Amino acid sequence: MNHNEQLRTFLLDNAKRLTEEWYDSLDKKKAVGVYASTDPEVIQTLKEQDYEFRLYICNVFVEDEKTFFDTFEVWINKIAKANEHIGTPISSVIKEFMRIRKQYCDCIEEFVSTYEGFIDSKLINAWNENVIRIFDITILKFITAAQETSSLQLKAQQEMIHELSSPVITIKKDIALLPLVGDIDTTRAKMILESTLQQCADKRIAHLYIDLSGVVIVDTMVAHQIFQLIDALGLLGVKSTLSGIRPEVAQTAIHLGLSFENIRIKSNLAQALDSDIQISLQ
Question: What domains does the chain contain, in order, with CATH numbers?
Answer without folding.
Answer: 3-160 (1.10.490.10), 169-281 (3.30.750.24)
